[in-house]
Design goal:
- The N and C termini lie far apart (about 60 Å).
- The model has no long low-confidence stretch (mean pLDDT about 85).
- By secondary structure, the protein is mostly helical.
- It is about 90% helix and about 0% strand.
- α2 (about 20-55) packs antiparallel against α3 (about 60-90).
- The chain has three helices and no strands.
- It has one domain (about 1-90).
C-alpha cells in the first residue's frame, strides 16, 4: 500500500507545474518592465529635447533639439507599432 501512495504523490507532483509557470511569468514580467522602461525613457528624452527646442537660446540649439525629439518619438512609434495594432484590434 505504501508503494501505491508513493506513486500517487509522484503523479500529483508531475501534474502540478505551478513552479514551472512561475518562472515563465517572472521572465515575462521582467521583459515587460524592461520594455516599459525603454518606452518611458524615450518619452522623457523627447520631453527634454522639446523643452530645449522651445526655450533654446538660438536657432541652432532649437533646431537640433527638434531633430533629437523627433528621433526619440520615431523610436517610440517603431517600438510600439505592433502593440498599437493589437490595441486597435481590441478596441
Amino acid at each position: 500500500m505504501s508503494k501505491e501512495k508513493d506513486n500517487t504523490q509522484d503523479v500529483r507532483s508531475i501534474g502540478d507545474n505551478s513552479f514551472a509557470h512561475e518562472g515563465r511569468y517572472e521572465g515575462m514580467l521582467e521583459q515587460a518592465v524592461k520594455f516599459l522602461d525603454r518606452l518611458s525613457n524615450y518619452v522623457r528624452f523627447a520631453e527634454h529635447e522639446i523643452s530645449r527646442a522651445i526655450n533654446g537660446k538660438n536657432a541652432v540649439v532649437r533646431a537640433v533639439s527638434v531633430r533629437d525629439a523627433d528621433s526619440y518619438i520615431k523610436k517610440l512609434v517603431r517600438e510600439t507599432d505592433s502593440w498599437h495594432a493589437v490595441i486597435e484590434t481590441m478596441k
